[in-house]
Amino acid sequence: MTTPLRHGWTTGACATAATAAAYTALLTGDFPDPVTITLPKGQRPAFALARESLGDGFASASVVKDAGDDPDVTHGALITSTVRQAAPGTGVTFAAGRGVGTVTKPGLPLEVGEPAINPVPRRMMAEHIAAIGGHGDVVVEISVEHGEELARRTWNPRLGILGGLSILGTTGIVVPYSCSAWIDSIRRGVDVAIAAGRTHVAGCTGSTSERVAAELYGLPDDALLDMGDFAGAVLKYLRRHPVPRLTIAGGVGKLSKLADGHLDLHSGRSQVNLGLLAGLVAAPELAERIRGANTALHALRLAEEAGEPLGDLVAERAHATAAGVLCGAPVEVDVVVIDRAGTIVGRHG
Do residues 85 and 140 make contact, with C-beta atoms less than 8 angstroms apart? Predict the structure, then answer.
């Protein structure tokens, strides 16, 4: 029997819990522990406090983020909210503490110069402060221990969020392996590229294909989309938010899946169709050898030995899949297929 994967909590939910505890202590002198919050869809989780501090005009509370069974870089991070009294009539304002980034590029749902605390977590914190009562005029400073180091493993530097992590979440719940955070990062990457005036972006399956695309076309960092396995996410978002030119770059294995019509290229959700690859070549003997190949790369090497441009044929079919998803959106597409060493083995468009 398979054990269900355990859900976790977003950084936004953790920051809200810490804020509710700190604001309560600011008013009453006591920290609720555990502290219970209400999420946007009505769930009411309780959070234990890891640290607490009360001083003259401020209170601080910390929560350890539990991402459940999701492979989240912020799992185990200590998220702290320090709530300070502010001038009457100022309401709730937000500040980036140590380990929380600052927005430096347009195209995100926050203005340049703002702390990277997204709109939904801001609303959650403000609503909990209002529900607790009191004067409600406070500065809420969110910090994340080691957040600057953790942010280097996220999209934040490329998106122009500098100095640390973003406080994220729309539901408050992390669904294991939902990949929603990655897809959201792809969308924000397109938004930033558009805001920066980029007319050419590249969706890349990994660091090697990203390097090849950047060198081939001279693309800056903010035009490079870390697509990973989510080709469909890139294409569907560009269908609604077009950029004049898109390069899709990746290894022959993943792009052979796109050529086969798959939009999710993860090995657990789609497989290389050696029959499709065999059907692309002309020589029956080569086709039979490709059907018995171990991998797409093995098939490519067999085709190269026979003088067949299998890489180009994969690129052509992948291009057709991409064009079909774009549904006539004004996006010119080209496809670049590479091997593991980063050598271009096929192109189309």
Answer: no
The single-letter code of the amino acid at 109 is P
> Which two structure tokens, joined as six digits, stand for 149?
């180091």
DSSP annotation of 168? -
Residues in the chain: 349
- Are 321 and 259 in contact by the 8 Å Cβ rule? The answer is yes
The DSSP element (H or E) to which 195 belongs, if any, is helix 180-195
Q: Which residues lie closer than 8 Å to 303 by C-beta, 6 or more apart?
A: 281, 286, 290, 309, 310, 311
Other CB atoms within a 10 A radius of the CB of residue 57 amount to 10
Encode pLDDT of 1-37 as tens digits: 445 667 889 999 999 999 999 999 999 999 999 999 9
DSSP, collapsed to helix, strand or coil, labels residue 226 as: strand
Beta strands in the chain (DSSP E): 8-9, 35-36, 46-47, 51-55, 58-64, 78-85, 92-96, 99-100, 102-103, 138-144, 161-162, 164-165, 173-174, 200-204, 224-226, 245-251, 332-338, 344-348
Q: Is 338 exposed, middle or buried (0-12, 13-18, 19+ CB in 10 A)?
A: buried
For residue 216, give the H/E element and its range.
helix 207-217
> How is 45-79 classified by DSSP, letter by letter?
-EE--SEEEEETTEEEEEEE---TTS--TTTT-EE
Backbone angles phi, psi at 73, to 5 degrees: -65, -20
List pLDDT tens digits, range 71-117: 678 889 999 999 999 999 999 999 999 999 999 998 888 999 999 99
Distance CA 30, CA 127 (A): 20
